[in-house]
Amino acid sequence: MNAQHSMYEQGAGIRGMTLASVLLALMLTLFLEALDQTIVVTALPHITASLRGFDRYIWVMTAYLLGSTAMIPLAGKLSDQFGRKPFLLVGALLFLLGSACAGLVQDMNQLIAFRLLQGVGAGIGISLVCNVPGNMALTHFPCSAISTSWPKAHPESDEVNLH
Fold first, then answer.
1. 12 domain residue, yes or no
2. What is the 3-state secondary structure (H, E, C) of 48-100?
3. Would the pLDDT of 136 be above 60?
4. Does residue 137 sit within a domain?
5. Dist CA 75 CA 87 (whole Å)
6. Averaged pLDDT score across all residues of the chain
7. What is the pLDDT of residue 7?
8. Distance, CA of 76 to CA of 109 (rounded, Å)
9. Among 51, 92, 134, 146, which has the minimal tally of Cβ within 10 Å of its Cβ?
10. pLDDT band for position 131 (50/70/90)?
11. Is 157 left (phi over 0), alpha (psi -120 to 50) or beta?
12. How many domains does the chain have?
């Protein structure tokens, strides 16, 4: 057995209250992004009526969706290279900044721009909320340990090669 496998068998990684607080923070991040989307969809007819912008009603939602959809793969790739924590913090900051500015808008163009900013932050958050628990699990169960134990647990599947 090599040193890498013994390190994982000893339980290196996040445990206890640290693990619980990281998972709670990730769940709160996703909850805020989902709650925001639910509230805005419900209130959007009243918001557009007060801003007199029914002709650009659909752009408020489209800007958010375009921003988040574009950022999900980009944030995943860049966070692989440069680390997840700074991207998660920047994503939360962009989302909160976009939310605060969207509450202070004076016309529809500003609302569309700030919803785009909010969508960029949400896309970063969604991507990393899905990636971080997977990375935490890999500290306990590395792919190499799983792939070397697969043939022992499933002898009938000789054709599977996970290396």
1. no
2. HHHHCCHHHHHHHHHHHHHHHHHHHHHHHHHHHHHCHHHHHHHHHHHHHHHHH
3. yes
4. yes
5. 7
6. 81
7. 41
8. 29
9. 134
10. confident
11. beta
12. 1
